[in-house]
């Protein structure tokens, strides 16, 4: 006993270092698995408060671009409304609008990052606004990511610029699906993997969400095809997608809640049993 | 004694805020950021107990991690830097360290630059290795370490020189 105590006292610096280093290493490893970064994330009152203060100053510098984006979106929505009214007049009902029911919450980006291998955003809406894990996040240009962690008033978003992000997507012109990933290199490009060799691919084609997941509705824009190559196995394409969104400049975003999600998930679970 | 503790607490808070509010968002060339919060570890009083430095460094790193959603990479790197600090001091200041008489604002700039450069490169290498967490991307890690280190070293030396002159 005496010897053990002596050993501990003699090497106390090294032992403390070892302890702290392994805690940090544990947190790191934990953060590298999807949906596990529970303890160390920026969805808490302290970080939210600091980022909120900075954001309220920072917003003034982006008012102009933000206004332009909103004006553009207004224009597009008005156009859609006109088309819809016209189609209603001709007693033709467009059924695509009735496909899913989504509740939209508007949020501000408090923290944005795009230069790390795994990027997260922090938003100013949380549990109090009934935001939960796995809600989709988009803005007027296209998709941004999926809600990862939430606290009372803040939430973090697993950005599409994150190597753990996998989102179902398809080519607009055909119905071939793939999964959207990021190789961690450029914030302008993401990769669409596992696209079948049968798919007709043209540079410049639009990529949009596939609607197979319960997170995003079908047809949200992602980007255009910049280049493509055949996978090593030779069966699938890897497509380089140029994003519509400028991920380095995000202000207002929309959080999407699929109101049918619970129903769909329980149905799928019943099927699996 | 109280004065030293107070100035260290203020330095801790200021460096943390500057790091998370400004330096984390510089993204020079798309990915190069300086990590100046390690100045705190460099300037921590030498006569102070090493255990305290380890614990405080861990907390500083962890807080930076919380702000940047990076798991525990900054905490791990900061603790490592705090642990090997005596070795760095000995190798760059030599005899002065043995006599426990280093004053960072009065000794020659050469030793200071050696000390900060060694520490920064080690800290950045550990941090980027853990952040990337993939042995096949070792070149990316080295590239990031190189560019970010240059940025951090220049900024750190400038900050230390500027603020130490003023205090005198």
UniProtKB/TrEMBL annotation, chain A:
Gene3D superfamilies: Rod shape-determining protein MreC, domain 1, Rod shape-determining protein MreC, domain 2
Protein name: Cell shape-determining protein MreC
Lineage: superkingdom: Bacteria
This protein's record includes keyword rRNA-binding: no
Role summary: Involved in formation and maintenance of cell shape.
Any one GO biological process: regulation of cell shape
Any one cellular-component term (Gene Ontology): plasma membrane
Domain Rod shape-determining protein MreC beta-barrel core as annotated: residue spans: 109-256
Pfam families: MreC
Keywords per UniProt: Cell shape
Recorded family membership: Belongs to the MreC family.
PANTHER family reported for this sequence: CELL SHAPE-DETERMINING PROTEIN MREC
Automatic annotation (TrEMBL), chain B:
Regions that span the bilayer: 12-44, 51-67, 73-89, 109-126, 146-164
Organism: Winogradskyella epiphytica
Main subcellular localisation: membrane
Topology in the lipid bilayer: Multi-pass membrane protein
Gene Ontology annotations for the cellular component aspect, listed alphabetically: plasma membrane
Name of the protein described by the UniProt record: Rod shape-determining protein MreD
Keyword terms of this UniProt record: Cell membrane, Cell shape, Membrane, Transmembrane, Transmembrane helix
Subcellular location: Cell membrane
Source superkingdom: Bacteria
GO biological process assignments: regulation of cell shape
Family per record: Belongs to the MreD family.
């Amino acid at each position: 006993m005496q010897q053990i105590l002596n050993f501990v006292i003699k090497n106390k610096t090294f032992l403390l270092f070892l302890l702290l280093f392994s805690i940090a290493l544990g947190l790191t490893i934990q953060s590298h698995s999807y949906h596990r970064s529970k303890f160390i994330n920026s969805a808490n009152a302290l970080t939210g408060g600091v980022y909120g203060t900075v954001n309220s100053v920072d917003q003034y510098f982006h008012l102009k671009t933000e206004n332009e984006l909103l004006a553009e979106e207004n224009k597009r929505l008005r156009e859609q409304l006109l088309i819809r009214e016209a189609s209603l007049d001709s007693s033709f009902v467009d059924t695509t609008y009735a496909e899913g029911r989504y509740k939209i919450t508007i949020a501000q980006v408090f923290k944005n990052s795009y230069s790390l291998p795994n990027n997260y955003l922090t938003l100013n809406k949380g549990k109090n606004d009934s935001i939960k894990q796995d809600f989709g996040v988009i803005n007027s240009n296209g998709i941004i990511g999926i809600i990862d962690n939430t606290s009372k008033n803040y939430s973090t978003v697993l950005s599409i610029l994150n190597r753990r992000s996998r989102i179902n997507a398809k080519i607009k012109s055909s119905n071939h699906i793939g999964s959207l990933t990021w190789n961690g290199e450029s914030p302008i490009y993401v990769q669409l993997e596992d696209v079948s060799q049968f798919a007709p691919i043209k540079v410049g084609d639009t990529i949009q969400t596939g609607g197979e997941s319960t997170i995003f509705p079908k047809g949200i824009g992602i980007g255009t095809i910049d280049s493509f190559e055949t996978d090593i196995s030779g069966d699938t394409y890897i497509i380089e997608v140029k994003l519509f969104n400028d991920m380095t400049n995000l202000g207002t975003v929309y959080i999407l809640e699929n109101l049918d999600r619970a129903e769909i998930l329980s149905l799928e679970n019943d099927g699996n049993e | 004694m109280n004065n030293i503790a107070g100035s260290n607490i203020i330095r801790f808070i200021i460096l943390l805020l500057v790091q998370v509010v400004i330096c984390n968002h510089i993204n020079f060339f798309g990915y190069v950021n300086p990590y100046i919060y390690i100045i705190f570890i460099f300037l921590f009083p030498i006569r102070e107990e090493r255990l305290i430095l380890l614990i405080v460094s861990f907390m500083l790193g962890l807080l930076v991690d919380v702000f940047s959603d990076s798991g525990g990479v900054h905490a791990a790197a900061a603790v490592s830097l705090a642990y090997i600090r005596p070795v760095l001091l000995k190798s760059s200041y030599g005899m002065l360290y043995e006599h426990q008489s280093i004053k960072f604002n009065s000794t020659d700039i050469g030793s200071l630059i050696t000390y900060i450069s060694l520490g920064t490169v080690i800290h950045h290498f550990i941090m980027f290795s853990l952040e990337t967490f993939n042995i096949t991307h070792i070149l990316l890690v080295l590239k990031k370490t190189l560019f970010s280190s240059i940025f951090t070293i220049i900024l750190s030396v400038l900050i230390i020189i500027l603020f130490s002159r003023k205090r005198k």
